[in-house]
Amino acid sequence: MSEDTDRLLEATTALIPPLLTALEALEHASRHLHPINIAGLAASAAERRQPLVDGLAAFESVEWPERLQRFASYSGEAALHAIQALEGLTGAAGLDNPALGAYRALGKLSRATEALYPVSAMLPAVSRYFVHPDHRDDDSLAGKLASADPGRDEVGIVHSGNRTDQRGGFSVYVPEYYSGEPCPLIVALHGGSGHGRPFLWTWLRDARSRGTILVSPSSRAATWSLMGPDIDSPNLDAMVEQVKANWNVDEERVLLTGISDGGTFCYLSGLRDDAPVTHLAPCAASFHPMLLEAASRSRLDGLPVYLVHGALDWMFPVEVAQTARDALSAAGAEVVYREIEDLSHAYPREENDRIIDWLNG
C-alpha cells in the first residue's frame, strides 16, 4: 500500500507543478499578446511544453484507483488542453496571420482551466492557484476555502444554456464559502466573437478570493448589440434578476464590466436609466460622445466608472479612452482612469483586484 501511495504521489508531483507553471505562462502570454510580441511569447511557450509532456506521461503511467479517478481525469484533461495551447502558441509565429493563430491557441487556456478547477477541492496546490496571488497568504481565506463544502447546490459554477455552441445563456460562479450574506455582483462581458463560458475564467480567481458573485453572459449573436435593436440588454437584466432571486446580492454593488465589444456594450447598456447595475468598468472599449446623448443627467451624475485601456492598443487607440474619460467626467460621472503602458488589446487580469477594491469602496 505504501509503495502504491508513493507512486501516486510521485505521479502527481510530476504533473501538477509543470501544469500550473504552464498555465501561468499561458496567462502571461494572454496578458501580453501583441503582434510584435508573438515570437517571444512563442519561444517561452516552447520551453514550457516538454516538462508538461513528460509530466503527463509519468502521470498516465500509473494505475489510478477508483477513488481517485475523477482527480486523474480532470488533471489529465487539463494537461492535454494546456499542451495544445502551448503547441499552438509555439507555432503561431510561423503562420501567415500570427496574431490570429495566437488567439486561437490561447482559447485552449480556458478549457484547461475549466477542466482543472474541480481539482481545487482535492489538492491544496491547485486551490492556491485559483486564488489571486495577493491573497494566497490570507489565512482567513484559506480557512474558509478549506472548510467549504463545494458540493452544495447553491455554490460553485452553474451554466445556464451556456454551452459554447449556444448563445444568450450565462455562467455564474458563487464562492464555495458563500454563507448568505450580501455579496457584490460582477457581470462580465466577453469581447466580439467571444463567449461567456470561457470568459468566466478571466474573473473567477478574483471572485473566489474576494467573496463576490460572478456572472459571465453570452451575447445573443456573435457579438453584443452595438448596432440595430438592443436584443442583449433585456437578457442581461433578466440574468441579474435571476441571480438576485437565488442569492443575496448587495444592491449597492452591482458591476457591469467587459472587454472590447463587451466594454463598449457596458456603455450602451449600463448608461440606461433602468439598468440594474451601479458601477461600470469598460476595458479596451470603443467610445463616441454620442453614447452620452441617450443617457440622462441623473444617470450620469456621480456614476462610478473605472475605465481601463492599454497605451499599446492596436484596435482602439488609447485616445479613444482619453476621450471617454473627459466626456464622462464632464457629464458628471466619477471616473477612475487607468492607462496601462505595456497593455495592448488584451485583458489585464491584474486590474480585477483593484476594481473589486473600488467597487467595495
Write the layout of secondary structure elements.
Blueprint: H1 2-31, H2 38-60, H3 69-92, H4 98-116, H5 124-129, H6 139-147, E1 156-160, E2 170-174, E3 183-189, H7 196-199, H8 204-210, E4 213-217, H9 233-246, E5 249-259, H10 261-270, E6 279-283, H11 297-300, E7 304-310, H12 318-330, E8 334-340, H13 351-360
Parallel strand pairs: 3-4, 3-5, 5-6, 6-7, 7-8
Antiparallel strand pairs: 1-2, 2-4
Helix pairs in contact: 1-2, 1-3, 1-4, 2-3, 3-4
Question: How would you summarize this macromolecular structure in one to three sentences?
Answer:
The protein is α/β, with parallel strands linked by helices and 361 residues long. It contains 13 helices and eight strands.
3D shape: globular
Count of runs of 4 or more consecutive helical residues: 13
Structural class: alpha/beta
Helix content: 40-55%
The topology string of helices and strands comes to: HHHHHHEEEHHEHEHEHEHEH
* Range of strand content: 5-15%
**Strands of the largest sheet, in order across it?**
1-2-4-3-5-6-7-8
What is the residue-averaged pLDDT? 96
The counted number of beta strands is: 8
Largest sheet: 8 strands, mixed
Low-confidence stretches: none
The N- to C-terminal Cα distance equals 54 Å
Radius of gyration: 21 Å
